[in-house]
Amino acid sequence: MTIDTNSQSASAYPAPSAVLELLKPITWFPPMWAFACGVVSSGVPILINWYTVLAGMILAGPLVCAMSQAINDWYDRHVDAINEPHRPIPSGRIPGKWGLYIAGIWSALSLLVAATLGQWVTIATIIGLILAWAYSAPPFRLKRNGWLGNAACGFSYESLAWITGAAAMLGGALPPTQVLVLALLYGAGAHGIMTLNDFKAIKGDSEMGINSLPVLLGADRAALAACIIMALPQVIVIGLVTFWGGFLEAGIVAALLAGQLLMMRRLLRDPIKDALWYSGFGVPLYVFGMMASAVAVRLLAGT
Asked: How far is CA 181 from the centre of its chain?
């Protein structure tokens, strides 16, 4: 099934409801949460920097993340015509090339907001935008390979958003080493979370030559890989936070990881059936651990 976007009238405009659906507000939570973790880990009082927090949350979610959803749907429109034909672009509710135009407009708005938050925020935003376009758009189209594409998403949604939050609160300066290490570890673990999203699209991905991990490895091996990739960085975090003196926070992360490991047993029995279930119940434990470790670093800073 193909979509002829040029057949739409050039004067046709998408309805605001279709644009909002394209930008997928439900996906904004992960980078906004990671940004909040960065804010907390910076050690800077939040109330005296409320504008920075607000602008940064908008940057992380409704701008950069929303842009990534728009550009992904534009370049995935033929795959979505197979997997999810009701989406705004394949259904025609986003007519012509408006999906591409919206991604471009949102990229420009992201850069404008980032420029008000300092040098390292701007640099992180530029990297995030480049990765978002490279993930979906030719010639790179990183999503064609599950290893590369999921790494780009995890780094953008978690690591860069976390670093951006800390840098924004520090006046645009580079965050300390502990913050950078936590951001990179949780971004690495998010690779596994991204894999969970690929189980629902195995048929369409196979037909369109997108080598997600479930396509490359098969459902069972991909689920095992996802579990290992999610769990291992958390084990390292527990060790580091303990070494830094955050014994309570390390215990919280360990307890949350134990809960995930129990749920992973069910996921591994039938990953195609239970990937969505694990995303709803196991992944929240992962993100709660992010905040616990962020609090540990904040206390380490003596605030």
From this structure: 18
Angle between helices 16-23 and 98-115 (to 10 degrees): 70
pLDDT higher than threshold 50 for residue 11: no
d(CA 302, CA 288): 22
| Percent of the chain predicted with pLDDT > 90 | 83
C-alpha to C-alpha distance for 58 and 28, rounded to whole angstroms? 9
Cα 214 to Cα 242: distance, rounded to the nearest angstrom: 35
CB atoms within 10 A of CB 223: 27
Buried b (16+ CB within 10 A) or exposed e, 110-121: bbebbeebbebb
What letter would DSSP give residue 1? -
Tokens representing 46? 């939040």
Mean pLDDT, range 105-112, rounded to an integer: 98
Does residue 196 contact residue 274 with C-beta atoms inside 8 Å? Answer: no
Question: What are the domain boundaries of the chain?
Answer: 20-300
Question: How far apart are alpha carbons 172 and 119 in whole angstroms?
Answer: 5
Name which of 35, 105, 99, 34 is nearest 69 in CA terms. Answer: 99
pLDDT tens per residue across span 184-201: 999 999 999 999 999 988
* Residue located via tokens 């129990």: 262
Q: At what angle do helices 146-154 and 119-136 cross, to 10 degrees?
A: 150
Phi and psi at residue 175, in whole multiples of 5°?
A: -65, 160
The end-to-end CA distance of the chain, in Å, is 57
Q: Whole-model pTM?
A: 0.90
Residue 301 CB neighbour total at 10 angstroms: 13
Look up residue 57 and give its amino acid.
M
Contact 79, 201 (CB under 8 A): yes
CB 42 within 8 A of CB 117: no
